[in-house]
Amino acid sequence: MSTLPKVAWVGLGIMGSPMSENLIKAGYQVTGFTLEQEKLDRLSAAGGTAAGSIADAVRDADVIVTMVPASPQVEAIAYGPDGILENAKSGALLVDMSSITPQTSVDLAKAAKDKGVRVLDAPVSGGEAGAIEAVLSIMVGGEQADFDEAKPLLEALGKTIVLCGPHGSGQTVKAANQLIVAVNIQACAEAVVFLEKSGVDLKAALDVLNGGLAGSTVLTRKKDNFLGRDFKPGFRIDLHHKDMGIVTDAARNVGAALPVGAVVAQLVASLRAQGDGGLDHSALLRAVERLSGAQV
Prior knowledge:
globular, N-(1-d-carboxylethyl)-l-norvaline Dehydrogenase, domain 2, 6-PGluconate_DH-like_C_sf, six-stranded parallel sheet, single chain, three-stranded mixed sheet, 14 helices, EC 1.1.1.60, 2-hydroxy-3-oxopropionate reductase, oxidoreductase
């Protein structure tokens, strides 16, 4: 019998499915729940156990991991008679890896404490590729002892794992991450259009740029998206739109000005309004092309 903690996983989307499978590969017993039957079938095929409800998934779990799109979904799965807090055993550790507002994480930790459940907010960066390769950056908020307990599990999912402060801190750092990523993608998109309109060999240009100070993880990960106009979602515009709302609101609450971030937030919103919300966030290139007179 394995001495590893039993894991419940709620939310098996683009990120959640490969992440849960990495836990299975690391020897964890994973019971999962999500709303899509095909995702449950995928978990079962990988060696996990599909549950029929949240309650069934979490009842015997030592660690409960959640990975859902936004704050409303976290609240929906956490609260109420059929939710996590009412059905988890006392002493369980809830690791929420969703990207949500810092205040939602603070409120969840407080409500969970009343139920004898400990909480970490642990959002991630690295996209679908990082989830598949288990090289995610994981930014954590919560108590040191809970972080120490969760770290071996998190090490099966990511490469850079840091406790950033008390509850909500992980979400604050993730909001900053999404700000940096969005601005970086926008700059890359503008450069791509500029280079193409100038008649430069785009692949050669991006290769040399990525070898210098302009190089970045964003350019490394998204270069082929730009070159091939491949916007199959690794991280959807809809989700980045949500995240830009989080960082804009959080910055306003603490009195931080985000002039460039505000512009990029509007560009993300405009792309979504034009029907591109389901595309990868590298599709910011499409918005720049439209502004530059291209028909896309």
